[in-house]
Design a protein that fits this description.
The chain contains nine helices and nine strands. By secondary structure, it is an alpha/beta fold. The strands form three sheets. Strands 2-1-3-6-7 form a five-stranded parallel sheet, sandwiched between helices. Strand 1, helix 1 and strand 2 form a beta-alpha-beta unit. Helix 5 runs antiparallel to helix 6. It starts with a strand and ends with a helix.
Length: 272
Amino acid sequence: RPLRVLLVEDNPGDAELLRLLLEEAPEQAPPGAPTPEVHWVERLAAARELLAREAMDVVLLDLSLPDARGLDTVARVRAAAPALPIVVLTGLDDEATALHAMQAGAQDYLVKGTVTAPALRRALRHAVERQRLVDAAQRATNARDVVLGVVAHDLRNPISTIKMCAGALGESPPAPAESVEYLAGVIQRSAEWMERIIRDLLDVTAIEAGRLAIDREPLVPTAVLESARQQFAPIAGEKGIALVVEAPPSLPPIEADGERLLQVLGNLLGNA
């Protein structure tokens, strides 16, 4: 579809020239590219009204308008449409302001009187692409933060279990052999649980995608429940709580990721 350009320019002559450069120079565009669709307004207030009701791809913004000047112009457009790329238009004596405008969020700037059709089209295309990359990077950062938060939270449960079991093993008099074997098994399973969580943390692909890998396999539900009970029995015992699994042995097998289910049950039990 054609690129939808919002042109904010109070000088009709400049606006007409820019429109002609965009709409009447298709030979300067990449092969197959449709002619851009230009929407012209003369005031920032009109631009904000238009952005509130219509979707645009890029804003071509004059920094000197009757109702806004300089960096305030960029800030107010960003407030109206935070994810919309902005290319600022400036006079020869305003290049310093234009550079500050880019620091304030604009993607590029053009100097009036020197703009050619190829440069204009290129600036708009690059602004859209740069904004897309910025948005993708922000999404990846947000996804990473979510995954890191989950991993940090889930590590607390197996660490607490290992500490409880290690403390019980170090008590005097020594625990009976069957208790030692049981506690060692709980420590082993908790360590394997932590290893899986740490693998998630190191999986950059999963972090950037905002999801964790799921390995489905046939599982017996009661076995998963019993594993969760064993993991948290030491912690529950310290609080004087008895964990009991009540589930009919006739439950059919399920297709699921056992370690992920243990994470879910671990959060429920840990919070409880």
